[in-house]
Design a protein that fits this description.
Length: 465
């Protein structure tokens, strides 16, 4: 646990002394000038760029070595020298004068440390590793910054205009905090992202006046497996949920994006195969929505591809509960893709069909003659009925030598791919012991990984047979 207490200092017009004038010192000076500080630099020698910096803002340069007394009247001190004894003397003086001091890359001589910083308008994001790994802090800062689009900057500006109004309306701190959370957890960010500032402000005012029902259900596609394959919108909505209703195929890492106080309700199959019925799920979503909660119904892949999302929408619409569908990346496309199997190909496939394999369990209403004509056929939920799928296609005239592949746990580190033909695939999958979830692809496109194997090893290509 870090022993540091993070703060942002108001340095406008305050004197900050920087000892040293090299590249690192100049970086610090630039940041201090951005914060409006009056900077005094103490350095015996000139360094490229230093004098130009003096012209840029409020910088005074003392061209001599540091000596005790230089920190007199300073609000903050920075020692950016590569001489630890100078850093030590600066620290000693700073301690005596009760001035916080930072010695660059010299933790023992610091009484404060500087985080990695990302600035975006009035939004500032800082990351610290308590001085242990500044490079890691910088990389984490870059990662976080890459999630924070310009809409956040605009949102900060918009929310800033509401601050005084809300403070006057809600004097009680706790009630005011709850109202702020209702605003930032609303769809305001999506409206700002769309560039519709007016609608965003109207929505904020509706939330302030309590004129919109807070309850809404978001049907969110969690993607095919890899937690990185959820959409940006899906991730945002998940991070603002009051309650999340989720399935078995949702990756556990996605559940970590849920706010700690939010409720998590699992409605997938339990260890004994017991499951919540679709009617029970529909009723649950309706009642949570009617309670005024912000509900995320998180489903594997895309909610509308064999996800029964449409039934849930029907139930919500009938009950008058607001809902939104946040599409996801379906396993039907992404899982073959992760195994380097494209569903269309200029030479081999001008189209594809996606069907459910369990349909053929004890009879199927699918038109197998039509499916046998498809250049590429993708079968979901088809592992258990693989033999039936093959016989139906063979009976409809599909050539026994047509390439076929089964990809299990696609997009995950545990992904396995078994390749064969219509004649051999069932036997090979059994021999390899593949387990659900698995996606079957039939068609000449299954040859693509083999074609690419000139430049990729089978391991890189994710192909195990
Ligand atoms: C009930 S369906 C849901 C499909 C989901 N809505 C979608 O769009 O991907 C579940 C089936 O999707 C396929 N599937 C889902 N995730 C998979 C994965 N990571 N690897 C292979 N197949 C997967 C399997 O065929 C599985 O039986």
């Amino acid at each position: 646990m870090s022993a540091y207490y993070p703060v942002y200092l108001d340095l406008r017009g305050r004197r900050v002394v920087v000892v040293g004038g090299g590249t690192v010192a100049q970086h610090k000076i630039r940041e201090l000038l951005k914060a409006g500080a009056a900077v005094t630099v103490v350095t015996p020698a000139s360094a490229p760029g230093l004098e130009d910096l003096a012209d840029e803002g409020s910088v005074e340069i003392l061209w001599r070595p540091y000596r005790t007394g230089d920190l007199e009247g300073a609000f903050l001190a920075i020692a950016a020298t590569d001489d630890r004894s100078v850093n030590h003397d600066v620290r000693a003086e700073a301690e005596r004068l009760h001035i916080p001091v930072n010695a660059v890359d010299d933790l023992p001589n610091c009484t404060f440390i500087a985080p990695a910083v990302h600035r975006q308008g009035d939004l500032t994001i800082t990351v610290s590793t308590s001085g242990h790994a500044p490079a890691l802090a910088a990389r984490l800062r870059d990662r976080i910054a890459s999630w924070i689009g310009p809409e956040y900057d605009a949102l900060v500006a918009l929310l800033g205009t509401l601050r005084a109004e809300i403070a006057a309306r809600e004097p009680d701190f706790k009630t005011r905090a709850r109202l702020w959370y209702r605003i930032v957890d609303s769809d305001i960010l999506a409206l700002v992202r769309r560039g519709d500032r007016e609608a965003a402000e109207t929505l904020a005012r509706q939330v302030i006046s309590g004129s919109i029902p807070a309850g809404k259900v978001y049907l969110v596609g969690a993607g095919p497996g890899d937690p990185g394959l959820i959409t940006v919108r899906g991730r945002d909505v998940l991070g603002q949920a009051d309650v999340v209703v989720y399935d078995r195929l949702v990756h556990p890492a996605l559940l970590e994006l849920i706010p700690p106080k939010a409720e998590r309700l699992f409605v997938g199959k339990g260890p004994q195969g017991e499951s919540t019925s679709q009617e029970q799920i529909n009723d649950l979503l309706v009642s949570l929505g009617l309670e005024g909660r912000r509900v995320v119904r998180l489903k594997g892949g895309d909610p509308f591809v064999f996800g029964r999302g449409a039934e849930e929408c029907e139930a919500l619409a009938a009950a008058g509960v607001a809902f939104e569908v946040v599409p996801g990346i379906t396993s039907a496309v992404a899982v073959p893709g992760a195994a380097l199997i494209p569903l269309t190909h200029r030479r081999w496939s001008s189209g594809f069909a996606v069907v459910a394999g369990h349909e053929c369990d004890g009879g199927s209403d699918l038109d197998w003659s039509a499916l046998a004509q498809m250049p590429t056929l993708v079968v979901l939920m088809g592992l258990r009925t693989l033999g039936d799928v093959v016989s139906n296609l063979r009976a409809a005239g599909k050539d026994a030598t047509t390439p076929a592949a089964v990809i299990a746990e696609g997009t995950l580190p545990t992904q396995r791919v078994v390749v064969g033909t219509l004649a051999t695939i069932a036997e090979r999958v059994k021999a390899e012991g593949l387990e659900s979830p698995a996606t079957l692809v039939i068609g000449d496109v299954v040859r693509v990984p083999e074609q690419l194997s000139g430049s990729l090893t089978p391991v890189e290509a994710g192909v195990a047979a």
